[in-house]
Amino acid sequence: MKMTPMIETFVMHFGEMGSRWGFNRTVGQMYALLVVNEEPLSANDIADALNISRGNVSMGLKELQAWRLVQVQHIPGDRKDYFKSLGSIWDMANKVFEERRKREIEPTMTVLRDTLLASPANAQEVYAQQQLKEIHDLLENFTKWSEELQRLSPENMATLMKLGSGVGKVLDMKDKFLSHN
């Protein structure tokens, strides 16, 4: 399988971005390749397109399946497994965020909760707990907010995102109004 220059540019870039989102560069490239292909691809198709080993593809597909980003499809009369990205782009964003929350935010919240339950031994630990409480509260509010966002339909989420800067202006007007009263 040969990628066009446009698709290759996107796939290579997505691999670099994937490494910042929690999966390695090759897995990011594999996922991008699946996203931009209308038809499902076999492991051999992926290996050929990205010039990587079949073993590397197999491990990457297992990771993408663990993230719930791809699904296996079968083509009648063909014994090979084929792979397709699962769901819409919104679904992908939600799944990546959900996995990152499980892998990064939840363990941090556990450490913060445990630390906040401990009795401080001195003034330095009292101060540290105050700071950690602020971090805990911020992450907890962010998590609750993001869970609410994940429940929105893609249409409502797109509308909310378009309102983004408008919400900031409304909040600024509210602050000005309250300061004048």
Automatic annotation (TrEMBL):
Q: Which domain of life is it from?
A: Bacteria
- UniProt xrefs under InterPro entries: ArsR-like_HTH (IPR011991), HTH-GbsR_regulator (IPR052362), HTH_MarR-typ (IPR000835), MJ1563 (IPR026282), WH-like_DNA-bd_sf (IPR036388), WH_DNA-bd_sf (IPR036390)
- Which keywords label this protein? DNA-binding, Transcription, Transcription regulation
Keyword 4Fe-4S assigned: no
A UniProt-annotated Pfam family: MarR_2
**Single GO molecular-function term?**
DNA binding
Q: Does the keyword Lipid biosynthesis apply?
A: no
Which stretches make up the HTH marR-type domain? 22-80
Query: Can you tell me which family this protein belongs to?
Result: Belongs to the GbsR family.
What is the recorded name of this protein?
HTH-type transcriptional regulator
